[in-house]
Amino acid sequence: MAKPKIAVFKFSSCAGCQLSILNIEDHLLDVAGAVDIAYCVMAKRENREGPYDIGFVEGAVTSPKELLELKKIREECKVLVALGTCACFGGLPSIKNFAGPQREMEERVYTELWDLKSIPAHGIDYYVKVDAYLRGCAIDVGELVQLVKSALLGVNPHFRPHSVCNECKLKENVCLLVNKGKPCMGSVTAAGCDALCPSLGRPCEGCRGPANDANAASLARTFSVDLGLSRDDVRRKFLKYAGNTPEFKKGAEAV
Amino acid sequence: MPVEAFVLPKADLGGFVAKLKADCEVFGPVAKDTEFVFGPVAAAEDLRLDYDTTILPPKKYFHRPMETLFKFDGAVEITGEGEEVGKQVLFGVHPCDINALLSLDRVFLETYPDPYYRARRENTVIIGLNCIAPCENGFCSSFNTGPAMDKGFDLALTDIGDKYVVEVGSAQGKELAAGLAAASEADLIAKNQALRACQQKITRRIDVENPGELLHQNVEHPKWEELKEECLACGTCTTVCPTCFCFGVKDYVDLSLKAGERPRTWDSCMFYEFSRVAMDHVFRPDRAARIKQRIFHKLTYFNQQFEAPGCVGCGRCVSTCVKSIDPVEIVNAIQANPNPPREVKLYTPPAKKVTPETSPWVPQKAVIKAIKQQTKDTTTYTFAFADPKVQEAYTYDPGVFNEISIFGIGEAPISISSCADVKDSFDHTIRAVGNVTNALAKLQVGDIVGIRGPYGVGWPVEEMKGKNVLLVAGGIGLAPLRPVIKYIQARRDQYGDFEILYGARTPNDMLFTDEFDEWRKIPNTRLYLTVDIVPPGVEWGHNIGVVTTLFDKMASRPENTIMVTCGPEIMMKFVVRGLLARGFSPEQIYVSLERRMSCGIKKCGNCQIGPVFVCQDGPVFKYADIKDLPEEIF
Ligand SMILES: Cc1cc2nc3c(=O)[nH]c(=O)nc-3n(C[C@H](O)[C@H](O)[C@H](O)COP(=O)(O)OP(=O)(O)OC[C@H]3O[C@@H](n4cnc5c(N)ncnc54)[C@H](O)[C@@H]3O)c2cc1C
Ligand code: SF4
Ligand code: SF4
Ligand code: SF4
Ligand code: SF4
Ligand code: FES
Predict the structure, then answer these.
(1) What is the pTM of this model?
(2) Cα–Cα 20 to 30 A to B546, which of A9, A172, B255, B416?
(3) Nearest CA owner, ligand 1 atom 40
């Protein structure tokens, strides 16, 4: 079997997810043995043209230029993976979608406005078909390795987008919400991070986007009524990473 | 016989624990931040016997959150078992959690005993601790599962001030109590007083004579819709529950992509994808239905299934729920505003219990002897077990299933499509729809897979004797019914008229087409075929329309007839409706159901429909037995 050709592309993002790929050195050696990284501007100087077997796209699409590139990438990649929350849901760049009229915001941020062609930030599946999603800001390296293995075996990894609370309780963490009154979003956020933040005493920020059948509106009511968060704070919580998703949008609009 | 009782002065606790630690690991309640957990006890000072409750119950030492069933290398070679189990002591287990273990024993030790759970149970000494103060959310007295224990312990401690009364519950417990002074009459009185005082202080209670009946009468109730709006579907309530047993099974490979392990991991019926099967079909997508599943399972189904409490009132699900969703409050709310009482019949499972000598998790190697393409995506494989002795001993009823494994990919339940009259091989007819079935589609004659089974209850071929038989199949649903045809063919004189109604989407989707002529030749047997659509260019000389359109052509009448059906659930729904309209009774109708299955042996809980385990109570059911389940089928 020829080694599958892999490509990694970047749109509007912080490059943190790509960095996670580079950080899995010990795994990378083995994975790189099994795969041929043909295109990854961040990791190597000589990059080869497509087609590719698996393409990883990091970042949200925020400009017409990126959109054209994305369409070309889709055609070049047999399997297309959204790498990280920006590519999955819009991520942090999508905060701008909810921050008021676009021109006003652009005027606050940039001085040279004449060449600015910005469109609302969306995950890549807003525009093209996506075959697999690696959620998280940043992605979970274990999931990445599992996805690559599954792709090599030709099977669906069947990730389980149930709540972070599940992983949190398995670690027997004292609940930040119930016992400490902190606005933890773990109950409506998809697991897969091994409850990283709550295990370090920090409330879940919802970076992996909505869990299956997430009931964000109910959690928003708890934040507002029981924890006394202001309406704006509740909105900000649900719009931070995945405000584009109908699930979290409901949370943002619930109070 | 009075229980033997001793006393352990609190000052001597350190020495007592140290003695235990000499030859076992000791676990008990220890502090974690503001809460408590069961954890390793280095010395008696770590033990917090004043704890109220723990985040996870001590269940985690028996039914581990993740347990390796075996390790493998390659598609069929097993290279190792799960973790070795050492001797351990659980110190300070409350009565609710001990009763929960007794309930779990029913799940894991009765039919197809689980070797891992059993080894851990056998290697664990349980030193219980009666409750002298109620915990915040507990309601154990509703089920007599606390605040005092009467069984399930080796030793039971009760705090009476400066010492513990130590009751003996087993021979092993008696040995451990050696050297302790006998309890005096006054000590025992103090103990009883402490427990009675606690009992009186417990205010939370489910006060219904028959919670099962109440819930069955209130399957539809505004409370469920209210809960649907509140519940976050986070699954925490089941994760922390001491009697929840559900798990999923998934293979993990290392970077060789060949070697790896097959663990089981706790799962939850509160999760949307808990009931998901291939092609992304989800049986319980509605959150209200999932909440009902949990509450009903805890308060009635578990009792029906295992004759043991499904809720022991530990209160954990209440304490940990972000929305404070509370079984006591739910029952009270329903009680306060119930539907008018009506008579309800609670399902009772068949009494069948199987206790094989070998590990129920380990498949046997089976060789592919022949492969026959049936349609574009469906193939019949003829298997024989690699070990001739296993093959010789292998027999099964028509309609039951096997679990087929390819290590590294996974396992799938598949009906046996042959009849056990054939001795040296057996067939499976498999549609390629996902991981395991696609991997099977790539195999060739001579390749080896893992198979365990047979599992379940099949078609009522005995009851059918002397009666007319009507067989209605749709699509792949003919596979589990083919054994019935073969069975009747071989015993033709024992059955009356026989009619086969078979429908598929198109003529090209029909299975076993090359056997149709042979079936038509069975005396007194008629085969009717139908398809939904005939694509251009395809020849078709039979009926067009859904399978129920054949009812007008068939000769079958309700008198002295048994009807068996398998196919897509929507098809079976219309078949059953059509036949009921034609005067068939639910007693005459048998259906085969599909659900997600991760074990086949009544352990993983995935296949439950209300109180029913499809894998062991079915997959074939008499329609009369299941038509009124609280969780509607069709
Ligand atoms: C009693 C019984 C008899 C059957 N008989 C036959 C038969 O004779 N012939 C036949 O072709 N089929 C039969 N089936 C159906 C067959 O079992 C399924 O088609 C098979 O399990 C598909 O497995 P797969 O690995 O190929 O599919 P996949 O879709 O890869 O896996 C299916 C399983 O994976 C899990 N899963 C799927 N999606 C997800 C997800 N997103 N997240 C987590 N887990 C997921 C679920 O547990 C699901 O059951 C039968 C089923 C039952 C219950
Ligand atoms: S800390 Fe957060 S993630 Fe953990 S159980 Fe509580 S709400 Fe869930
Ligand atoms: S813990 Fe509460 S919110 Fe979470 S699934 Fe259970 S009942 Fe629903
Ligand atoms: S249902 Fe709740 S109270 Fe009952 S045993 Fe489970 S966790 Fe405890
Ligand atoms: S089905 Fe029952 S045992 Fe399984 S997770 Fe749900 S409540 Fe727990
Ligand atoms: S309980 Fe596991 S399949 Fe039925």
Answers:
(1) 0.95
(2) B416
(3) A158
Q: C-alpha angle with apex B21: B19 to B26, nearest 5 degrees? A: 130
Q: Out of 3.40.50.800, 1.10.150.130, 3.30.420.40, 3.40.50.700, select the CATH number for domain A5-153.
A: 3.40.50.700
3-state secondary structure B151-220: CCCCEEEEECCCEEEEEECCHHHHHHCCCCEECCHHHHHHHHHHHHHHHHHCCCCCCCCCHHHHHHHCCC
Nearest CA in chain B to A149: B257
Return the ligand number nearest the Cα of B327: 4
Interface of B with A in 130-159 (CB under 8 A): none
B521-544 residue pLDDT tens: 999 999 999 999 999 999 999 999
B408 touches A at CB < 8 Å = yes
> pLDDT by residue (tens digit) across B337-382?
999 999 999 999 998 889 998 899 999 999 999 999 999 999 999 9
Ligand nearest to the CA of B271: 3
Contact (Cβ atoms closer than 8 angstroms) between residue B401 and residue B415: yes
Q: CATH assignment of B364-455?
A: 2.40.30.10
Contact with chain A for residue B285, Cβ under 8 A: yes
Helix (H, G, I), strand (E, B) or coil at B70: strand
CB of B491 shorter than 6 A to ligand 3: no
Residue span(s) of chain B under CATH 2.40.30.10 come to: 364-455
- By residue count, chain B amounts to 634
**Which value, to the nearest 10 degrees, does the dihedral of the CA atoms of residues B118, B601, B66, B124 take?**
-10
Does the structure show a pLDDT above 50 at B513?
yes
**Alpha carbon of B96: minimum distance to chain A alpha carbons (Å):** 19
Q: What is the mean pLDDT of chain B?
A: 96
> Which class does domain B468-626 fall in?
alpha beta
Q: Ligand 4 centroid to B241 CA: how many Å?
A: 5
Count of CB pairs separated by less than 8 Å, A with B: 115
CA nearest neighbour of B611 among B353, B304, B275, B216? B304
